[in-house]
Amino acid sequence: MASRPRTLYEKIWDAHVVETRDDGTALIYIDRHLVHEVTSPQAFEALKIAGRAVRRPELTLAVPDHNLPTTARLDADGKPVPIADPESAAQLAALEVNASAFGIRYIPATAKEQGIVHVVGPEQGFSLPGTTIVCGDSHTACHGGLGALAFGIGTSEVEHVLATQTLLLQQSKPMEVRVEGDLGPGVSAKDLILHIIGKIGAAGGSGHVIEYRGRVFERMTIEERLTVCNMSIEAGARAGLIAPDDTTFAYLKGRPMAPKGADWDAAVAYWRTLRSDDGAIFAKSVTIAAGDVEPSVTWGTSPEDVVPIGGRVPHPEDFADESKRVAAQKSLAYMGLTPGTPMTQIPIENVFIGSCTNSRIEDLRAAAAVLKGRRKAANVRWAIVVPGSGLVKAQAEKEGLDKVFIDAGFEWREPGCSACLGMNPDKVPAGERCASTSNRNFVGRQGPGARTHLVSPAMAAAAAVTGRLADVRDLV
Amino acid sequence: MQPLTRVQGRAIPLGLKNVDTDIIIPAKWLKTISREGLGAGAFEALRAEPGNVFDDPAYKGAPILIAGDNYGCGSSREHAAWAMLDLGIRVVIAPSFSDIHSGNAVKNGILPVVLPQDAVDRLLEVAREGLEITVDLEAQTVTTPYQDRFVFEIDPFRKHCLLNGLDEVGLTMARSEAIGAFEAARAAAQPWLMRGTAA
């Protein structure tokens, strides 16, 4: 092996190089491929036209999530409920047909294991440390929370992986985000990653793979690490990584697709080598003080538009760079906000708890802890909880969390991507605001004209009960 | 994919930074199982604004788009590249691109040209005058009728694929033996890695 100290990213990269080309690109082996209905039909179609097979069907897992309605999937007789939108129905049917035609494992919408691909992968033990994981979805970065090199790809690359189990890639540069100290009470992993994106910007990680380092991450649960890595793409980084450790191994042990027996021991021994060496060089390094992080919220239409909940809507003139001033003006007009307004005076009509960023059991517990014994404010018109998977939903119901949400005035839904991207019927109406635990506040993301404020699950619950953006620390 | 060597024509002076792929093509257009016809939904929210650059007759059918920093950020949807292609866009000039979107663009015969902000600002001025801009991939230059000449960098493999309209899947399938050898070594040393859903 190379004697030069290497970063975790470089170690995983090196272990997957099939061959390096003269032009500097490398053919990289892909260990795990997740497929959903939206970004795969054109890839399967291209394979069919060219008469190509899937090279390693057992390394791909297909799960519908983006388009699925989150209303009941079975009727009173236990029969699947047809999907009303004909285009959605056709796209979902195509995934099932393609998976079957190419011999790929498919989890149907009615199975308890179904959910958002980025929730299902770790939950099933399909996603493992040190593996390369891809999916036609930019939030694939999520799986970096297990110490996997995971990134989103386009449909042409989906086709490339299906046909060859590899990708032709240029190596990214390693970047370190080091967080010093500990988070204060009431400050979550979501608040931290929003804060980081606010500091480094939506393009701060472009061309890089971020490794999150510091004891904050070592003390995090896997679900918190998944939340952090999930949003690496919102900082422009293709992937985010947290070194695997005993917490990771304990999380994975016994999961259906995780290694077993002697394989498990060999895997853990290998996974223990997956850490950046002392003296490894990062092309870029940023240090953040954990003590500076407060519950965070976005005010604009880029995930970099972050302020602490105690802050105010900024003035466009606050920004040094001309293009950011123009962007801020446009964002404020879209968001219907006046500069200088305290964030806690912004009323909220909709609350969405869900998405691959924050729909796991710990997220639901955090929101339910705030909602218990409370009810959503009168001006909150629509509040929904969309669990990340059927297994998350079942666990929450076992703990009685569904009742807490329903008693608080929330709708309790079936798993899927839902109002994170407004592709299924769950949308925020034009001109209305939504406190959302998702990952993107882009123009029109949650529906045409919808105004999104990104927050943590506990902060979304606080917004629901107060009817405005609120500091959850005042409620606990 | 259609080869790209030299593109000459008017340029749409968008100039905005952080143009995300939800802006390029909103989610409601992603329900298609085809690559065709997405131009109808391209930049829908921007085109709803009166006087927008996309529907300005001065830029109708222009093959070049000029944007700000971090073009194509956000979602990995390749529909964004298909939508741009359907509008007739073959070149995007910006100070920086998202990693995923620039890869998707190249795979569909769209050239992402990275130039410094001051060069982009100059090209925006020229574009706003309705003058033609020339992008020469072979020479890696962007030129204007005012004799401006900007040189850009591009990864040699991407350049090769664009110039020749090559299908990357076909190229990699020719390396099947090397991939097979890698898989065999892996199956021997770390069999659990090769089990996937069959575990």
Fold blueprint:
The complex is a heterodimer of chains A (476) and B (199).
Chain A: H1 8-14, E1 17-20, E2 26-29, E3 32-35, H2 41-50, E4 60-62, H3 86-102, E5 105-106, H4 117-124, E6 132-135, E7 149-152, H5 155-164, E8 166-169, E9 173-180, H6 189-200, E10 208-213, H7 215-219, H8 222-230, E11 239-241, H9 246-252, H10 261-271, E12 284-289, E13 296-298, E14 306-308, H11 322-335, E15 350-353, H12 361-371, E16 382-385, H13 390-398, H14 401-407, E17 411-412, E18 433-436, E19 451-454, H15 457-466
Chain B: E1 6-9, E2 11-13, H1 21-24, H2 44-47, E3 64-66, H3 79-87, E4 91-94, H4 99-107, E5 111-114, H5 117-128, E6 133-136, E7 141-143, E8 149-151, H6 156-164, H7 168-173, H8 176-189
Parallel strand pairs in B: 2-3, 3-4, 4-5
Antiparallel strand pairs in B: 1-6, 6-7, 7-8
Describe this structure in words.
- The complex is a heterodimer of chains A (476) and B (199).
- In chain A, the strands form 5 sheets. In chain A, strands 5-4-3-6-7 form a 5-stranded parallel β-sheet, with helices on both faces.
- Chain A starts with 7 loop residues before the first helix and ends in a 10-residue tail after the last helix.
- Chain A has 15 helices and 19 strands.
- In chain A, helix 2 packs across helix 5, helix 6 runs parallel beside helix 8 and helix 12 packs parallel to helix 15.
- By secondary structure, chain A is of the alpha/beta class.
- Chain B is α/β, with parallel strands linked by helices.
- Chain B has 2 domains: 161 residues, Aconitase, domain 4 (Alpha-Beta Barrel); 33 residues, no CATH class.
- Chain B is 34% helix and 14% strand.
- The longest helix of chain B has 14 residues.
- The relative contact order of chain B is 0.16.
- At the A-B interface, helix 2, helix 3, helix 5, helix 10 and helix 11 of A face helix 4, helix 6, helix 7 and helix 8 of B.
